[in-house]
Specification:
elongated, 91 residues, mainly alpha, 5 helices
Length: 91
């Protein structure tokens, strides 16, 4: 399970999807807030990748559960980096 989690943390497509999610959240934050787009986006990333990329290669539920945690961790790191950049810019 840890190998699956670590593999998902380092997946470039998952990281790109999470970065796009944070970017979209930032652009629509005034209308939708912060958590309304993030929660469904994290679930989308966690479910869509195991269902499409690893279709038929084993049990899907452990991959989805690990995907929720890995996507949430990636989004948290990106949000932290975003906060540091905004703080450095003085915003």
């Amino acid at each position: 399970m840890f190998d699956l989690f670590l593999g998902q943390l380092t997946g470039p497509f998952r990281i790109a999807l999470a970065a796009g999610l944070v970017y979209t959240m930032h652009r629509t934050e005034a209308v939708t807030g912060t958590w309304a787009p993030l929660a469904p986006g994290i679930l989308f990333i966690a479910v869509i990748l195991p269902l499409t990329v690893t279709a038929g290669s084993g049990p899907v539920l452990p991959a989805i559960v690990a995907g929720v945690f890995s996507a949430a961790l990636i989004v948290a790191v990106i949000l932290g980096l975003r906060a540091l950049v905004l703080r450095a810019r003085g915003r």
